[in-house]
Design a protein that fits this description.
about 290 residues; alpha/beta; Rossmann fold; 2 domains; 6-stranded parallel beta sheet
Amino acid sequence: MDAAGVVLALPGNERLSAALAAGLGVEDAARVIRRFPDGETYVRVETTVEGRDVTLVCTLDRADDKLPALLLTAATVRDLGARHVRLVAPYLGYMRQDDRFLPGEGVTSRYVGRLLSAAFDELVTIDPHLHRHARLADVYAIPHRTLSAAPVIGDWVRANVAEPLLVGPDEESAQWVRAAAGADLPCVVFTKTRRGDHDVAIETPDLTPHAGRTPVLVDDVISTGRTMIEAARRLTEAGFPAPACTAVHAVFSGDAQAALRAAGIERVATCDTIAHDTNAMGVTDLLIRALRG
């Protein structure tokens, strides 16, 4: 981003927007985004954006509440003459429904990808949940940068946990576990069979070589928490203490946080891609380095 750039926060993203603007040496735009009495969205951009690069900052958890304002703000700055409109979405929602599992289902990850690709010139996000989509380019038709917060988790573990063992609760978590572990921390990956949204079974490798270490579960997302809970149970059965749980994205749907506590997991640390009281790791520097590049 050049010195003529502007960073503009969608509601709830003001802290990150201000930090990015300060770190990049650009203007943090003034705007008014609110609801009309009938519930529709009102947008007014008070900072001049004509001829400038504009970065909208909006993490997309609970995306149904955020997409209308995001799309309308993108359309507004483009209509006001913005030269380039970028989206920084630390958490990128609508990645779960990536196939048609039952007749008549919508593949909503693709549909939201089309909407955002039409509204923006570029996307920057952190650890999107790619499962059946092999790469983000399968969903988004615009240039994009996908950043990894796994090294941020690894640094937190090194600073906060003595003699850690990094544990991936399922095969999908393997990439984050191995990247967080780097060359110096031991790690293992469990195997998961999902029997329903709240019912999972976990298979573990031989853990005896790691006896005496403190397990740290690592994943990209904590959503229902059931995978973490089942993995923690298997570790406890194997003689390990209750593990710490770490993740990039603190989605925490339903009673997930309470369920983790009830399972005896007291130490939960997440990155601040989604504001949550478990946030212990910042991604601002990661984003600033990418936006400077």
